[in-house]
Amino acid sequence: MSYLEIRKLTRFFGGLAAVMELEMEVDQGQLFGLIGPNGAGKTTVLNMIGGILRPNRGQIIFNGTEVTRLPPHLRARRGIARVFQENLLFRSLTVLENVEVGYHMQTKINLSNIFFDTRSNRIQEKALHQRALDTLDFVGLSPYSNELAINLPHGRQRLLALAIALATQPQLLLLDEPVTGMNSEEVETMLGMIRALRDQRGITCIIIEHNLKAIMGLCDRIAVLHFGRKIAEGPPEKIVNNPVVMEAYLGKEEDAT
Amino acid sequence: MDITVQEFWQGLINGLALGWIYILMALGLTLIFGIMRIMQFAHGEIYMLGAYTVYYLTVTLKLPLFLATCLGMLFIGILGLILERFLFRPVKEDWLSAVVAAVGLTLILQSGAIAMFGLHHRNLPVLAEGPFNIMGNIFVPKDRIVAVVVAVFLSLILYLFLKATKYGQAMVASAQDPDGAILQGIGPNRMSALSMAIGCALAAAGGVLAGSMFQMGPFMGILSLVKGLLIIVIGGLGSLPGAIIAGMSLGIIDGLFPILFGHAWASLSPLFFVIMILVIKPQGIFGHE
Amino acid sequence: MNREGMFKILGSIGAILFAIAVPLLLASTYWTSVFTSIAINSLMVVSLRIILTVGEFSLGHVGFMCLGAYTSALLTMKAGLPFGVTLPAAGLFAGLVAFGLGYPFMRVKGIYFAILTLVTSESIRLLAFNWRGLTGGLDGLIGFPGAGVLSIPGLVQLDFNRFTEYYYLTLAVTLVSLFILYRLEKSRLGFTWLAIRDADKMAGAVGVNVLRYKVIAFSIASFFAGIGGALFAHFERALGPHPTATFGVMTTIYLLIYMVVGGKSRFSGPILGAVVLSLVYEFARPVEEYQPMIIGAIGILVVMTIPEGLIGIPERFKKWQAKQIE
Fold first, then answer.
1. What residues of chain C lie within 8 A of the CB of A169, using their CB?
2. Looking at beta carbons, which residues of chain A come within 8 Å of C220?
3. Widest CA span in chain B
4. Crossing angle (nearest 10°) for helices C268-283 and C29-53
5. Inter-helix orientation angle C291-305/C249-262, to 10°
6. Which among A73, A164, A167 has CB closest to C204?
7. Which chains touch C (3 or more CB pairs under 8 A)?
8. Which residues does A98 contact at the CB level (< 8 Å), separation at least 6?
9. Which chain B residue lies closest to C137 (C-alpha atoms)?
10. Quick check: C291 contacting B, CB < 8 Å?
């Protein structure tokens, strides 16, 4: 029984199958890559694992429990965290406050701490601040804690998104294009961070990326999607030389010209 | 629940006529929202202005109803162009500002109408005289039938416009994907203007039908607006079949339920109906994600 | 505490002192009743804004005001309960209805939710109109008991049926309500609402039960709308459901314009809008027919020129000053 099991996962939009009968297994502690040309359905798969989208058919089983129909916030409670493709941040909040939102599941909100400035409330607030700062430290964003999140440049915004996901104490991290739009230095930093997350905290990661070099260097195992179906799966060396995979990518390029 | 067959058919045909008036409102609202991404909350006042404009043309200038209606739709369409250019275009970036612009317009048009025309109710000339024999010895007023035919006809023209003309297809594309539409070669401003003109003309037509069959007064707009909006929620934004089914359903509820169940239940029924639909399908009958 | 914080606190204290002094300063029952309305309007607009802080938009706030008004009026009239009981009961009823409707309503897209709230308030209004047996239909309810008399033996006897006493009662209830709403907004709860408004997809992904928090905001806002309705009912001592009367679309529009003209980004914005525009409305009484037009025109003017609202003027001024220095 793998850590994450995906069985016959299917999702239609209108009449079109975005994902068709996908079977996938991810082991605990794996760095699992998901690649494929544009429109292959990768983000749709992540949306279904994260709970934003319900599959039309199929099952998602995480850590032994079926989560297929659970709403996103309950999946977060079970340890599934998400970094979105678009830079989804809390725009009116500072960097530090953004991470504090990430700690929501460990924050108590009740009548007494809304209206009364109780001692336990102040202790909680302090602890929250500190944990958020620690998380920012890990991703290297502490100097920017009091900046408005939207004022950060793109690369740092991606790091902030990662920090927010980490605040949820995840066991499975879903990363949608974590290094897209970054320069090579930022890419290296991010990749190093993802490796550290697995090595130090045992977090399993599923990564969608277009930057093939990065993914090949990072992942233990890679699955390739094309028009919603899995066309190949295996360790990076096998995928790189796989003719079916090459045709999928090249075929797309030919269509474009 | 003691009603005769005659009363039932009367209620039913009233309901159908009402329903198609609501559908005209919903079509305009959905077109404007689809292109401009603005919910035109003053649409009811446009409907009211349509009725009053044609009233002026027929009663004061003594023009025949058909000609007056065509002219009325034209004038109100032009009003729509002016409103788009000077009221809605400057505020289209911020949705809340656009809402305030629309409701501010509602206040202005409504109090203007009261100031100019007074509070009392009027009537437009009838669409058609006399009864219409449906079957056996059941008779319904002919004008209800004419109203439904007119509304269906206008809806058909809109449908053909959207399906078969360059501008229409561009508008449909723009509603589904605002960025892709620019590729069609028609600027967003021109499409917004066109959607307002068409939407307002349809509302004006609705106002004329209502003013002729039922009464017209300065407050007639709000009710029709609420019905139009309700159709959008039940039928699903942007769906023509959804609007038609939802519109006819709501119309029949309004036509029959007061006779069958009394006015109190009749006023709650649309709300129950929409709650029921939303619990089953949150995007509306034909809506999509 | 920084300068801006001091400014805010002094400003609030000043406003409260002014509000307390109003009946003495203006010495007329007419103006006292105007300010009673202003207090109720402020509560309505601030509670309306709560829904906005969670990223939703309601066009049906007056419906809950209506529920609260009729609940309190009927309870005092038919069940003989004192105002002290019917006031919170009114809020509670309105809040519970909102809670029940919130779950199906807030699952759907924002624009649909706004439309649903509009339909709801119109349905409530029509129900009040049509349920002759309960609400007196076209004639409405008249002459139901007011807020009664409060006697603390040996200390004071307050007859709330008189204008001045009722004003202070309304002011007290309003200030307490505003305080509660302010604390809510500044708490972790309000913080979570903000996060939901900014990025609800993201909030869900970090474990926030978005639907529940939205429904809570909607229910709390509607609770206070119910309170506002009860205050209104016992002020007017008559309730009639005519379309131009208080619980119709016109009032919805006024509340919306008051909120936006005042400024939606700060807690005090709606209060400013309610005060300023209520006064404008009052001064426009001689040209009664044009009152709606004036308010509508002001609303349009403000969104075209200062979309942040009146409360944003100091910021604008500072920026303009900074530009002059360059």
1. none
2. none
3. 60
4. 140
5. 40
6. A73
7. A, B
8. A89, A90, A149, A160, A163, A164
9. B264
10. yes
Any chains having at least 3 CB pairs less than 8 A from chain A are: C
Per DSSP, the three-state class of A175 is strand
Residues of C in contact with A101 (CB under 8 A): 191-192, 195, 203, 206, 208
Whether residue C185 contacts residue C50, with contact meaning beta carbons closer than 8 Å, is answered with: yes
Are C156 and C87 a contacting pair, CB within 8 Å?
no
Nearest Cα of chain C lies from the Cα of B208 at a distance, in angstroms, of 22
In 3D, which of A196, A198, A242 has the Cα closest to residue A216? Answer: A242
In the chain, the amino acid numbered C122 is E
Chains linked to B by 3 or more Cβ pairs within 8 Å = C
Residues 6+ apart with CB under 8 A from A26: A2, A3, A4, A32, A172, A204, A206, A221
Q: Report pTM.
A: 0.91
User: Measured between beta carbons, which residues in chain C are less than 8 angstroms from residue A72?
Assistant: 201, 204-205
Listed residue (A190, A186, A127) closest to A163, CA to CA: A190
Which of A101, A160, A171 is the best substitution to test chain C (most C C-beta atoms within 10 A)?
A101
pLDDT per residue, tens digit, chain B (289 aa), is 567 888 888 889 999 999 999 999 999 999 999 888 899 999 999 999 999 999 999 988 988 989 999 999 999 999 999 999 999 999 988 999 999 999 999 999 999 999 888 888 888 888 888 787 777 777 888 889 999 999 999 999 999 999 898 888 888 888 777 666 666 677 888 889 999 999 999 999 999 999 999 889 888 998 899 999 999 888 888 788 888 999 999 999 998 888 888 877 787 888 888 888 877 877 777 765 4
| Cα-based torsion angle of the residue sequence A35, A41, A46, A47 in order, rounded to the nearest 10 degrees | 160
